[in-house]
Write a structure and sequence with these properties.
7-stranded mixed β-sheet; alpha/beta; 6-stranded mixed β-sheet; 5'-nucleotidase,  domain 2; Purple Acid Phosphatase, chain A, domain 2
Amino acid sequence: MPLRRLPLAFLTAAVLSGCAGQAARPDRLPDGSRAEVAILETTDIHSNVLSYDYYKLKPDATVGYERTATLIRQARREFPNSFLFDSGDTIQGSVLADYQAQVKPVGCNEELAMYAAMDAIGYDGGTAGNHEFNYGLPFLSQVTGTPMNVDGGRSDRCAGPHFPLVLANVFSARDGQPIFKPWAVVEKSIQVATPDGSKRSVPLRVGIIGFTPPPILEWDKQNLEGKVTVTGVVEAAKKYLPELQAQHPDLVVAVLHGGLNTATYTSDMENGGWYLAAVPGIDVLLLGHSHTEFPGPHYKGMQDVDADRGFVRGTPAVMAGFFGKDLGVVKLALARRDGRWAIDKDGTHSEVRPICAKKNDCVPADPAIAPLTAKAHEAAVAHVNTPIGETRLRLSSYFADVGNMTALSVVNAAERDYVQAELPKTHPELAGVPVVAAAAAFRTGFGGPDDYTDVPVGPLSLRSAADLYFYPNTLTAVQTDGAGLKAWLEKSAERFNRIDPASTAEQPLLNDRMPGYNFDQLQGDIGYVIDVTKPAGQRIVDLRWKGKKVDPKQPFVVVTNNYRASGGGNFPGLDGKNIVLSAPDGTREILAKWLARQRTLDANALPKPSWRFAPVKTHGPVVFKGAAGKEAVAQEAGVKNVRQVKDHGDGTAIYAIDLSK
């Protein structure tokens, strides 16, 4: 085959091997030879190319791929033998991403800013996460440079990343073939120490196989239904590993956009990494999706998991952080045994390296990255500053978990107005059915003390709408009844731990295992009380509509988003089968238009807060973590039963809440 026709990743590997000069065949290496190889990983970058907050319009040194790039270069100096892979959720998740996908889409010959930045550093491979599908298959086909034989897919090859993307569990509904190559083999020369103390350069062949969460068919139903099929990650691994192993790689790295879950395996399991780690033939496991670092304390005590050294069922594994906050490193000790490379587990471990060792101590940005995206960045900033009105209310999510609904009320009002206007056009029989809206605060501090929605009093812009509604979901409405409404709210109330009023010990209010984006809060002539002293499933004690107790059989239409309506978050009764309206418009766009129609937003335009905690006197303090110095925000919003009790000095604080008030 002529050299010019080799894929670029393989061409690069060939150049690297050629530069080594005296590369030796690995099968001639004597047993006892040793090598140290680092597998480097990024994941869930979500197109945060720069260290910049598009909602606050200011630099943010705590995020950004341009700083991860610095860690990568440092790691390569430390580990001359290294490979770099990405575990997905790469092209979506920032204002810059939305601009290049939806406002001014990149052309076929133009590389996406995120991929251009990654190519500047050089990757050996990657996979697709669930958010890769948010903008639809035509866009994904284009920006990854991957012709796809699917409805709406492109048959031509556009500009894409200069490294192979592999995905083994998503197939075209037309021909049953994978939409990406399921696996690839990357070859590089590495330096090896032989038993006699000499150094030699030999090729190392690393096979990669990729996986995305199977629930993408539910989460992105409007983009994927009838176009692709999906299998479980274990089934896909067992199908394609024999093909990959037939290429005789020295190592096989599974690149999974998923985390760890020890529940009974199913083919639609969202986080199947624990099971994938046990599939014979997988030597290293790269994880993602969960936005939780591994190894790390979150996984302490999980069965067959070493959360200190980074092993899952005996397999070395790592999950880097999100938004470019961290770099994952698997340090592999390789030993030559019986003519093959084997992993010496005693000398192997994983770690997650943060871009910020502590507050105000972050690595510098790599200077090569910002110039690559300067024009797109400036255009995105100009776009989100487009004025659309003004607000007389501060709209924030600092205390969304304890009753401040200002930011959510705007979303709920806009969604409800839209459905009340549009639903009768397609479902006149539902014209008299009560419509309520469900929204969750997407930014509740998970990403750090600045990870909150906060729109101040004054002018509103498109940036405000993007801050209020973080994800590019589409609006969806489902039909349910009073019993379904209560079940929905009971699931949401799992956001809270059960509080023991008799305990004198400090009790955390919030359940860290229930993310804030799953705490749906409903509005629209509805009211309810949450009793956190009761067990999960029994906490909604007074559910009313227009002041009357809700009948379990009373029909309702609930406005939500495509993710929730199709099963995202595993809410009872939501599996995509009871959808009555799927809007062609994104929720963010609907919200922006609604704000523009209001011109001036005040309390009269918003629904009243719909819920409260059941009053309870506790003998000990009940606390929650939040952003430091925001007690006045709570007071201003009418949440007068919270007070800051401890400032951590890193932008976060502990607040106490008096549940008796």
